[in-house]
Every structure is written in structure tokens, then in C-alpha cells.
Amino acid sequence: MASPSHPLNVAVIGGGFAGLSLLIGLQKYSHINAHVYESGSKFSELGAGAVLGPNSQRAMKLIDPRIHEGFERRAAFDPEDADENGRYPWVTVSKGEEPDLGVRVVDYRHEIRGSTIHRAHFLEELVQLVEPHRAHFGQRLVKIQENGDDAPVTLYFRDGTTATADLVVGADGIHSVTRKHLLGEHPAASAFFTGAIIHRATVPLAAAEAKLGDVRNNFGIQCGKDGLVFGFPMAERSLYYLGITTFNNDPVPEDKWVLPVDVAKLRRTFANYGDYVRKQVALVPDDGSAMGWSIWEMPPAPTYYRGRVVLMGDAAHASTPFQGAGAGQAIEDALVLERLLGKYLDTTQKTIYRFSPSETIQLVFQAYDTVRRFRTQKVVTTSAEAGRVLSGNEPGATMEAADIRERRKDRLNWIWNCDQRQQVKDAFQIFEEAQFAAARREVGRGSKRASRL
């Protein structure tokens, strides 16, 4: 455990957005020795486009301003000017089929300019900020063994190697081994298939504009019964990313996360949509480069921690993509957790009451869980709801534009406008209330001893 001469050893499992954001934050603390264990031979991101909203960007700046600087270097920003209220477009959704073909049902705007980013490009920016000796590759976790309050946790990897740490952070995504260790036989230990599949493809922007015209004028999501279609420029506006989602698909086995795309079937599915959507679907190449990704979701876990193991990112709260908010929650997690560990695991810090190292870890995790679990699980729940509303699968809802518009009105404000600084303050307050209570108990015990003398 940490002492003035021995820093706290932190093992971060998984080198995606969540794990690397946390690691970059922890590097600045001399009393923490953090390392990331990545299953692949290098850091890599599956998928293509990502939306990192205003809340995500504020969290980046608070963890390390260099993260946001890297984001700004690689993001594709919407070229449209702000409206008369100084707000830029972020998300627009229009009806892609009758009734109300072409009618806009969602129009979310914000004071920060709208943007998208290629996942691999953002990861490259994060990797540049990681101190090389902290990264370990080819380390696929298979088992965690906790050895009591004062002994290190042992990590076992598929290649037969092991590592030890004072605490373990599971940032190992939707396939999380860490989550299964933490929750055991609980029904929320594993993700479930939502019935939706997103068919992803990228094409050169010039090819997209040859068929669609200027994509800036038609940026957004087209919705209809059992389908969502969106496309946007990325990679410094050199590529056009297509995401075509179908709902109510047949069950998918847990080991079939990536599926082949039947392009002819996909085109038939959207044959009754408007001309613009049909042209978008026609852009999907039939050369095997398109991929179908089954969309899975984490059930709400009763806790994000147990012992000296804690979850973050998709391992804690993997979400459907229908609000574009899942990746941003991982970065918020990183901010709150790194600030708690950075402040309260520093044994040189003056305090009104000194918990033991194992007690401190438990209270840090408790504060993190209290602040982050409700918000992140609400994101998961409302994202699934958004998908149902936009695809005509929400009980009691219709595909009429007015009905969809009313159900989705202002539904991102609570996500985007969250005060990240206040989240950190709330977590600090939870921990410090425990310190204050412990100090009062200690004073009370001292008074009783004095009265007996």
C-alpha cells in the first residue's frame, strides 16, 4: 500500500478512451504509480465515428488540457454558423419516410460548435500523452485474485504472466472480465443484445458528395420504422462515415459481435424510405469492407466497485449509441476517479482523520460510485428510449413527426450541461463527510477514556 516512500500501484485494465484518459490524469501524481494493461499488441479502437459532446470536452480540459488540444486537432467541426442565439447545430433528426417525410423532429444546439471525430484519431492523440513505460501490451486478463485488505491484488493474463496492484480499475469494455469478477453470478454481470445492428461503412467524401450533393446541407439522422440512417464527414473531412441501424433483428450469439453485411438485404430494408436515404444506403460498398455491429447494452449494475476493484467506461455502463453520449461518460468517469485518487491517496496530505489505505480506497470507490452510477445508468436508459422512439418501437408512441418531436424535446440538455467541477466537489464532499464522522467518533472515544481516568 501507499506510503510516503512507496506510491500506490494502480492497474488499469484496457487501453481505450476510458483507460487512457484515466491513466493520463493519474500520471501527474507522484504518489500514484499507474500502469495500463492492454489485451492487443497496440492501442486500437474498433468502430469509426464518435461524438464527444460539450460535457466530454469540459472533462478533457479538467483531466489534462492536452487531451482537448488533441481532440481539436483531429475533430471535424460543423461548418454552419451559430444562430441568432449563439448556438451551433449538433444533432438533427428528420423523418426519412412517410408520414411527414423530410420533416425535422429533433434539432439540438449548443454554444460549443458541433463536431465528430474518428475514434482511431482521438485514440492516437491520447496515446501520445501516455508515458511509454506505463503501457503493457498482449495482456489479456483472465482472472483477478484479491488477497485480503493489506495484500496486493493479483492479475492473471492469458499468456501466463501475472501482475500485482494495490487497486484495479476495470476499463475493459463491454466484454469486461473485471465486471464478471466484481458481480459474480449477478444477472447484470454481462451485456445483452438489444435487437439492433448498426451497419458501418466509410467512403471517400468526394464519392459521397457525388451521389448526395454537399453533405453539410443534409447532415443528420433520418429516422423511420425500424431504421435509422446517418452520415457525417470525418478524418479532417476526407471520409464520409455511414451508420445504418436496423431494429428487431434475430438474436445474436454473444461471440458474434461483428457480423457480415448483406448489402442487398440492407437496400431492400430501406426501399420505402425517401430518395436521400436510399442514396445513402446505396453508398454501402458490397466488397466486404462494410461491417455489421450488433448493439449490446449493460444492465444496471447494483454497484461499480467491490473490494479493491472498480469499473469505469463501457465495463460499467455500456450504452446504445442513440444519444451519442456513451464515450463521453467514460471521460467523465476518468475525471472523477483520478481526482479522488489523486487527493485522498496522498499520504502526505494533512487531514482531520487518517483512514488506513484499504479504508481510503473503499471510501474513494464509494464516493465515485455515488456520484457516477446514477448519471451513467440514466444515460444508458434514456439512450435506449431514444432508439425506440425514433424507430417506432416505444410503447404508445407513433411515427408522427409531432409525437416524436415532443418526446425528444430538450432531452440532451441534462447530459451536455452537467457541471463537471461540481461532480468532483460532490465526490469530495462524500469522502470528507466520512472523514468528519470518523474524527467525531475518535474524539468521542477519547472523551470516554478520559472520563474513566
TrEMBL record:
Residue span(s) of domain FAD-binding: 9-346
Pfam families, alphabetized: FAD_binding_3
Residue intervals passing through the bilayer: none
Signal peptide per UniProt: none
UniProtKB keywords: FAD, Flavoprotein, Oxidoreductase
PANTHER family to which the protein is assigned, alphabetical: FAD-BINDING DOMAIN-CONTAINING PROTEIN-RELATED (PTHR46720:SF3), HYDROXYLASE, PUTATIVE (AFU_ORTHOLOGUE AFUA_3G01460)-RELATED (PTHR46720)
Name by which UniProt lists this protein: FAD-binding domain-containing protein
